[in-house]
Amino acid sequence: MSSPCDENAPPNRASRTRRWRARGTLAAALAASALAAAGCSVKGADNANLIAGKQAFVGKCGSCHTLAHANTKGNVGPNLDDAFRASLAEGLERDSVRGVVEGQIKLPNPEGAMPKDLVKGSTVQDVAAYVAAAVDQPGKDTGLLATAVEEPGAGKPAVESGGKLAIAASPTGQLAYVASKASATAGPVTIEMPNISGVSHNIAIESGSHGASPGGAKLGASQFTTKGTASVKVTLKPGTYTYFCEAPGHRAAGMYGTLTVK
Q1: Where are the domains of the chain?
Q2: Mean pLDDT of 32-53
Q3: Angle between helices 80-89 and 13-38 (to 10 degrees)
Q4: What residues have CB less than 8 Å from 185, skipping those under 6 apart?
Q5: What is the tens place of the pLDDT at every residue in 125-142?
Q6: Average pLDDT, stretch 154-172?
Q7: 136 φ, ψ (degrees, to nearest 5)
């Protein structure tokens, strides 16, 4: 797994990301092969909590890794569904996947972006067990797992009051704002973005409704913050605007929303 990384990296981060992804995918494949050959199994080793594992994965790992069942879309580290797909198709047991994930958490590549001890104690087993159960599986989580983490952007629409509009970053570490819709009255407005997730985010605003793809004129942007509140002041005319995070890959992963001004 990888960590909430420095999202203020320069544009050449894309090339490093591709190298990390390739290195991580190769490492996973090699480690999985070694575990399978050794007959390693962690089945029954503990009473892993899949709900806690999903919550910890989303909060600590999802900003850097894609895992469809967890609805995470990070692109700094390997896409975990892709990384294990071929090995699973060739017969790799999910217990061995779990062992690989545990090993990567405990002993991450020192040249990669992931720090040691990203999660600790029994949470390591919880995260590894959830990833092993969910990776490259069709469909969606069901039962209690389906509601273990709130859907990105599912909060109540943010509403401006007294010239201030608060749009919080997801506290779970997901690449999303709590609200995907907001409204305000025309005129000067201060947009505040509380962020307690530990993942570096900012909030910017552009004219028009463009979703995940840039398109309008940028009217302003806050500073980046980790465990703080960022803000930006803009003057808005009636119309539709898009607010989004400027960290590489965050907008494309779903960290944006629509602001309607009347």
Answers
A1: 13-146, 158-261
A2: 56
A3: 30
A4: 160, 261, 262
A5: 999 999 999 999 999 999
A6: 95
A7: 55, 35
Query: Can you give the pTM of this predicted structure?
Result: 0.70
Residue 192 DSSP one-character state: E
CA 30 from centre of chain: 25
Instruction: State whether residue 25 is helix, strand or coil.
Output: helix
CATH, domain range 13-146: 1.10.760.10
Could you tell me the pLDDT band of residue 81, with boundaries at 50, 70 and 90? Answer: very high
> What single-letter amino acid sits at 157?
P
List b or e across 172-196, with b for residues whose CB sees 16 or more CB atoms inside 10 angstroms.
bbbbbbbbbbbebeeeebebbbbbe
Q: Which residues pair with 194 in a beta bridge?
A: 229
CATH class name, domain 158-261: mainly beta
**Distance (Å) of CA 254 to CA 63, 71, 172, 244:** 11, 10, 14, 9
233, β-bridge pairs: 190
The answer to whether residues 153 and 178 touch, using CB atoms and an 8 Å cutoff, is yes
Estimate to the nearest angstrom the gap between the alpha carbon of 2 and the chain centroid: 10
Residues in the chain: 262
